[in-house]
Records
---
Amino acid sequence: MLTIQSNISLKPYNTFGIDALSRYFIEINAEEDLQTLYQLAELQRLDKLILGGGSNIVLTQDFGGLTIKISIKGIEQIREDNAHVWLKVGAGESWHGLVLHCVERGYGGIENLALIPGTVGAAPIQNIGAYGVELKDTFQELCAVEVATGQKLVFSKTDCQFGYRDSIFKQHAKERYFITSVTLRLNKTPVFRTEYGDIQKTLEQMGVKEPSIRAISEAVIKIRRSKLPDPAELGNAGSFFKNPEILKIDHAALQTDYPEMPSYPIDTTTVKIPAGWLIEQCGWKGKRLGNVGVHARQALVLVNYGGGTGLEIRQLSEKIQQSVQARFGIKLQPEVNFV
């Protein structure tokens, strides 16, 4: 049975810890709950906010509609062959919990994505990625329910139109679907990705001579914990901005003034610049403005020290964008969604 709550604080449901009210609130624990929801005509007219783990959202105001938290659980092996195993995972499962589940069973493909906050259902929206791996690399399909009609649909990898921290669900299909489950194809014989960031260096420090799924996941966890604050202790949404992609010719011009500017090749004409480096060069690392600021160890992370509002975080992000644009001519794009 669905329980409709009124005037609920969303502070426990977003990792920034922003205290915003939702006029109505419902938690969905099974796909059948969504079908029940469509029988409640009085709720259909309301604007809807769909929440997973709340790790990629900035609440800039109270929400006058219906917040729907997707908490559907379950991890089911639906197929297996000599090389792969397919897992169908409920949208409400913890992403990191899924990574640990796969590590324990020797299923490869997502170990580089350890400790990314949020739920499995939110992962395709963002096409989450880290250390040379993205969700789309193991993605098979997802199941969703159309918000307007209640119709059940299946989206293939092509349907999702994955891009860098992007998908159809952040573009013209934004807020149009409830994602209920995600199916991944994982590897029984993994291909290790250790060339990105400090993974190889950390493995050496750990005394690991032969990489393994477990060792790589532990190295990633170690790196992330050394750089990123725990949202349970300090409100944040992880990486706030995308790493910008610019033309190699523009990068070469910038290197005249900034020869130490790091970059990573994407293709023959484009490179990726670490947004954290750009922000740090503009003097924002560790800077605090009232109740919000930029983390002292990672300039890519904006934090809420307590009592900060979504508007304060948005204003801080805009100041950072303006300073990076003025100095480097590069426009940073947020990874997070503003509501």
---
Amino acid sequence: MAQPRTPPDWHPDWHADWHADWHPGRLAARLPHLRRRALLTAATRAFFTARGYAEVETPYAVRTPGEDVHLAAFATERIAPDGARERLFLHTSPEFAMKKLLAGGAGRIFQLARVWRNREGSALHAAEFTLLEWYHPGAGLDALMEETEAYLRAVLPPVVARAGREIDLARCERLTVAEAFARHLGLDVLASAGDAPALAAAAGVCLRPGEGWEDLFFRLMLAHIEPHLGRDGPTFLTHWPAPLAALAARDPADPRVALRFELYAGGLELANAFVELADPAEQRARFEADRARRLALGGQGWPLDEALLAALEHGIGEVAGIALGFDRLAMLATGASRIEEVLWLAPP
């Protein structure tokens, strides 16, 4: 039997095959990270099972992949035995399906789901990746943050290292979006909500052609807020302005903000979480506004998920849910600098 071609001084330029991520030389370099990822997966299942969660699996090919304005989905087609054809999409999140299960009475549920988002690719993004998503009926925003902290402490060591910094998991910070903008930009971001010129004036920047309030908000976030988040310990960035509510309920105590948080650690945006919007009429209105804007920007169209709206009509009660980028969590656990370092095989 021929011996494998793996010289001690292996280099990817020795042979074209060695550029492939399955090649023994390249796979060996990732194996420590991949074995750590496998332990992370097992610990995740143990954590949620111990807390009374049921692991669920929902379809990956769906009629409605999501409703985010900037969403780009992978399209596919189902062909029935009689030859009938139906356009489907690979889901961008299991959220819609899992909410239907909540309406059916599934209780606490979690899923490690493969998801797909087109037009994505960078050191932190892959077009195909894994989301850990869980839903806790009866929980509010504070309870979900506490549970998320407990999960991180259960599956990670007390201190993790990334990009030359130590991240102490005991040093969790909770910071509202308004507090973050006041701290790092010296402005009241809620006072300008929806008014792009007002936000630009308050921030002392020029409004770019065609730039709306949301676009400018995220430009300021990327340049002035995110670099300060999660540097020494995880940061929960909470209470997002109402125009950025997404699928979150508004705060009854302050309708200018939504009950939403994002989690940052070690320079990584790890998770996005909501106290879920349960009002079917408001959800329909938000979906229709997002769909109109997406189409106006040249994005894709697909059917409205009437089954989800029917589930909300039936009722899901008060529930908090979170979507956590599992590959990024693996990066944090291993110190990997690029997402492909924690993937067994990179998407083609």
---
Amino acid sequence: MASVHIKTYGCQMNERDSEAVAASLVARGHVLVPNEHGADVVLLNTCSVRDLAEQKALGKMRAVAGHARLHRPSTVLGFLGCMAQSRAEELVSEVPGVRLVLGTQKAHRAGEYIDELLSGRTGVVVDTAEEEGSQSRIDAHLAAGPGGGRDARRAVTAFVSIMQGCNQHCTFCIVPFTRGRERSRSIEEILGEVRELVGRGVREVTLLGQIVTSFGRREIPVRDGRSGFVQLLDALNDVEGLERIRFTSPHPKGYGDDLVEAYGRLPKLVESAHLPLQSGSDRILKAMHRGYTRERFESLVGRLRAVQPGMGITTDIIVGFPGETEADFLETLETCRSVRFDNAFVFKYSVRRDTPAATMAGQVPQEVIEERHRRLLDVINEIGAQRYDALLGKTVSILVEGPSRRNAARMEGRTRCNKIVVFPGAPRHVGTVMDLRVERVGTFTLYGDPAVVGVADEQQLEETNA
């Protein structure tokens, strides 16, 4: 039995992969520990979307390796994820002491390789080969609560990976090279996993994929005008005990009429959409190979809000893409003001090797990228504050997830439109759906009081009976 620490960088897909790896290791008798100090095995699950994420992981592993050389030379150090896939053997030579490098289609083999390394049967393992059916091997989940390894706060929510890979090939993105081509699981497999999770107490699932709306595009025929992805949503909506369905990350091109209509038809599909804009300039969108225009994007938002007026919409935006002029950037600002996103993840363009954008003319100076990043964040924060302030005094429905991240004495949940609400509650509320009156608004956080809702309801009843 060995002690294992796993640190995750990057997206929800990596979080899900890390949990599946952790669950497989626990099943083999290993024990998860909260930090690398004294661990027999240290794994970093890496991200390659931006250079900063790679540098953080490399810096962390060099520090861990240096300490291990002096104090625990037998420690197994390993890289998983996208950087492992793209750099492979380089990582073994760049960071002395690293003995395990597993690509994105090999995470499920971590347990067997670690056992070989711990026993001394193998010295170094580097495996980044493609593996047929790997998309169906990320299905293990940790038990929730003390000793189970899974954060008790997330006991009622879970990520479910429904596909791997990406065929989009945006010119700035390395993911198609690190995750491979699109490969989808079957609806039956996913239903089985979700039913098992519901049996453990999970009430909300978030479906994951590089472009999640591409699910089943080649494997599942369109039926009654509904894509494979919408057929999956239909099936999940019928799972007894499941309260809410979310998904991320989609592509604006994946929103057909069937998916827009599903928001008004399926009660468990929450009113929340993460729509990556990337840029508000048609010229830059074309250079990015995004496949839509600003007008088409704004039209999609309008269609969604027509079906669900309270739809929460968030986005991803890149500033400083090669060739971006001040005029292009101003179009992005205008689009944000027009759409009025609830929140946005704003990224500074980062050169990724082996991507077309890396060699494009017109690379934007770093100081210009920094300045545009600040200006865009100011606009996003201003609009977000206005949209949150509009909820002051309103009643919202939340699924209670557990103690607040910042104040364990309070409880926390999310609205259907994906806004965090903190309130005075108790552990018995976890897993329940509650109505709260919003009493205060913070920075992208709401503060509510269930007692106020109860008083208001009683007063209304008395007035009705008078």
